[in-house]
Write a structure and sequence with these properties.
homotrimer, mainly alpha, Ammonium transporter fold, 14 helices, 71% helix, 0% strand, RhesusRHD (chains A, B, C), RH-like (chains A, B, C), transmembrane helix (chains A, B, C), transmembrane (chains A, B, C)
């Protein structure tokens, strides 16, 4: 193990230095400047809200593990900043190679939003990967996600904001596929649990995500921002209420369980993402929020017992039912809502349904296949997989206060 | 007690499901749409700031109790989302029933701001109510508060933003009246205290409230937003300074007490709420902030010794002196400032004073009477009151990490 | 010690009351009104972001000490509100005394930004000063900083935003000079350390600062706000990445050290402050962020071993390498960038270089000299210096919830 650790020590700096040097050099050669910055496509307050959500909200959302707080917040920051740079670079490269028409369509993208996929995937393998594996996963996932969006937009004629909303779907299934290649933690291990303090900190992150989710869903809605905001708010409100109900109904002695609340309060925001800008009446968003919360908690109840046990997938922070299932619901709901609204106009309806279902299935397939391959690669000897006994353990990566003296 | 708990387990889901179903159905029938949304009366950044304050700021402001962190943040979220939906619905209903003129006057309201009353009241009974009681209280209070505002605006000709600012006053006195009907916690109980960690988390929430308070006070000021913001900032600054002075002067061994700081730093913001948009010079706001902080700390010193002991009221988080007294001060100050400014114009002056004092007394009376009745109702056998021995105890409602296994 | 404490008890209220009375009276006499408010020069969202950074971000950034969380957040709030009032007053006084031309130039300043200097200085003496000393330091430092800016702007013809950016430089060196006059804590003391929990709370504050730093750097950039924002973001991103690399390389067993991450992730934001509005390409900002992170971590490695040990300076939170050195780098980089850009235009170039280097050296000298004098004054018997055994100890100033054990 000690030698294991030595290797980790050597490879982290090397990998990051090479990556960062490549970023700077490519930024230089592809002449990416600030005026054209993909970040500037959206207004600063919206950009900042999303950045706040990612860095702070997700960082603390993931601190629920007893002894993994430093890594949760620290590595989250690390992969986001790498993901954002990587994402901006890909965009810059695409813009310089592609003809004008595509360029326009690609321009209004936001690098920060894309990193959501990476954050969600990293949550699925939380506590089981070392930083080298996380960084490799980040770079691969950002590239694949971009490729997927590009195919979605170009060949499947999917609108911009929809292909972006696949971010939850993609992140969750990519993460699950990667996670299936990692060994399960020992069931007797106590480290894979939470303390009241760590749960409370995680609640802090969750409330942050909750408050900023309307910004996230409206960031790409060009013309109906207000609608996107209030629909998201209503969906989130109803999921929060439903989360409390279902938590009482599904736990053994009828108490609330913090992990239920934590995942189900956000489900509504994820589910309404696809259709937020087009829903006319709040009651539709409310029903969507209710359904999202239901499938999240029932999902957590059933999936962990049956599905995951059979497939030997261990999903550290429950991304499958927090982000995966609600996103599936959202994608289906969007198609249903569109069909109901336009049922008189059959030909265009047919086209729309095929496109959306196609894009949706394509995205899940790409996520699963590439995630599985990434998982295989990450388990190569080269990457010095963390031993199962060191899962969920900050001390394997971080100097601990009681050991250090100075500053 | 076990049977007590069973009942709680059955009634929470039932109550919430009925309520939520009613909300969705009524939203559908009253045809409340997003464009007309009462939320859209204010800009998104302002709406988000207030939402952040309520969900996150108040949630953590109330975590000071040793073993009540989960309930403080969780139930706070629950009652806010129920309160907002309820408030929007009442507004939608009023708008569809009332003639046009009233409708205009009612439109620019914000559902989120109204829920402040509920949050404040719930703080007064913090740790003593079960979720069923909290939800019933929320629905009743939102309705009564709306009725009160409607009477204030229609019959007492009170301007919009003033009737809204009664939110602190109403919340505090309603909460106190409810609280008078609950038995006091055992004086030997240690649970009704804080730890350094819980105090620090509570400080976190307080600083959030402090930073966002200018947004709160300016959210309804139509034309003089800038004034409202900076007056609030000055009042808050001076209350913070004064809080430190008075804390040293009133504690036994001359040290700072965290609970003093926590309540007094916000007092200035509450007091200046009424007049924030009309104060001309910062020094007036500063004096108001100073006075607010003084009455808060002296209030906490005297009220807890004399007044509350006599009336057998137990005010868990000191809402009487944190929100109640500063709001009274603010209402009085607004009248005095108006009189000083317009003393040449006697007839209109007379009218103004009568209206304002009337509205103010009316609001307090309504809050006290309806709060008292609500307190009586909540103590019916039907609601399975939490036994005194289980006050301030998360474990009565929440599954605790070490007891749970999965996810 | 007990008598020591008595004195503290008497002097804190007295000092604050006198100060606050003076503020209110001077605000009245200098007729500072809200419309002319220096706060209103910047938009409310920007003002709020900076306020959030100062109050909340810095408050929690400094909670890393094991037993000093109450004082870190509480005293931080206290000195900021005093600093802001003091700063606004000085501005108001200058505006009323100075002729019109200067007035215009001075108007667009922000009182909140100036207090950054005070916060940084207070971090250098964190845990070693009592509140009376902190308040005196605040008032002196704000005055000296204003004087320095005034000289910079008037005699050295330094542009507004540059003279403002000296805030980090000034704060760090003033703080270090003050700190050199305080005795070092006992090396055996365990209080000068952190726990995993306090480190995590400090990370919370750091992430807040990280997210809001682009707002800080853009707040004074009149015309190229967008550029300032994105350059800062890139610099911060690269410093975060570099921080992880260097932390692994410099710690004994190749692990990450939280204190490295905490200071180095912000270094890029500090360094890019001077030139943020004028850098054309993100890769330049990225290189600056990289260099800033490097000098921060190498600085922490070397300075603590050699420089500080020799000079007997004890820098509680490492402000020298977190704010001081990156600010020096930023000032130098700005000059170099300007020279590269304008090397054809020799005469104006010469002038520019002299002005900037002059202003920079002048600011450091003023900070060091006045800081040293302030340090001497603060160690007068009058101020009842905290005994070394009570350094880093909340309980010396705060009433403790002493009865509680675990959460």
């Amino acid at each position: 193990m000690s030698s294991n650790y030595r290797n980790f020590q050597n490879s982290v700096p090397l990998l990051i230095i090479i990556l960062e040097a490549a970023f700077i050099i490519l930024f230089y050669f592809f002449d990416i400047d600030n005026d054209d910055s993909p970040l500037s496509g959206i207004s600063y307050p919206a950009f900042q809200d999303v950045s706040h959500m990612m860095i702070f909200g997700f960082g603390f959302y993931l601190t629920f593990l007893k002894r993994y707080g430093f890594s949760s917040t620290g590595f989250n920051l690390l992969i986001i900043v790498i993901g954002v740079q990587c994402s901006m670079l890909i965009e810059g490269v695409l813009v310089s190679f592609l003809p004008n028409k595509i360029e326009d369509r690609l321009k209004r993208r936001t690098a920060v939003v894309s990193t959501t996929a990476v954050v969600i995937s990293s949550a699925a393998v939380l506590g089981k990967t070392n930083p080298v594996q996380l960084i490799v996963m980040t770079v691969v996932e950002v590239m694949v996600f971009w490729m997927n969006r590009w195919i979605n937009t170009k060949f499947l004629q999917n609108p911009d904001n929809i292909s972006m909303m696949h971010v939850h779907l993609f992140g969750a299934y990519f993460g699950l596929a990667v996670s299936s290649r990692f060994s399960e933690p020992s069931p007797r291990s106590e480290k894979n649990g939470s303390t009241p303090k760590s749960d409370l900190l995680s609640m802090l992150g969750t409330l942050f995500l909750w408050v900023f989710w309307p910004s996230f869903n409206s960031v790409l809605a060009a013309d109906s921002k207000g609608k996107a905001i209030y629909n998201t708010y209503f969906a989130l409100a109803v999921s929060a209420v439903t989360a409390f109900v279902l938590s009482v109904l599904t736990t053994k002695d009828g108490k609330f369980r913090m992990s239920h609340i934590r995942s189900a309060v956000l489900a509504g925001g994820v589910a309404v993402g696809y259709a937020a800008h087009s829903i006319e009446y709040p009651w539709i968003a409310m029903i969507l929020g209710l359904l999202a919360s239901v499938i999240t908690i029932l999902g957590s109840y059933c999936l962990q017992r049956c599905f995951h046990a059979t497939l030997e997938i261990h999903d550290s922070s429950g991304v499958h039912f927090t982000f995966g299932l609600p996103a599936v619901l959202g994608a289906v709901a969007q198609v249903i809502l569109f069909v109901i609204k336009n049922w008189t106009n059959l030909p265009s309806l047919h086209f729309f349904v095929v496109i959306h279902i196609g894009a949706f299935c394509f995205t899940i397939s790409v996520a699963l296949v590439t995630g599985f391959i990434t998982g295989l690669i990450l388990n190569l000897k080269l990457f010095k997989t963390t031993p199962v006994s060191k899962y969920f353990e900050d001390q394997f990566y971080w100097e601990f206060p009681h050991l250090s003296v100075g500053f």
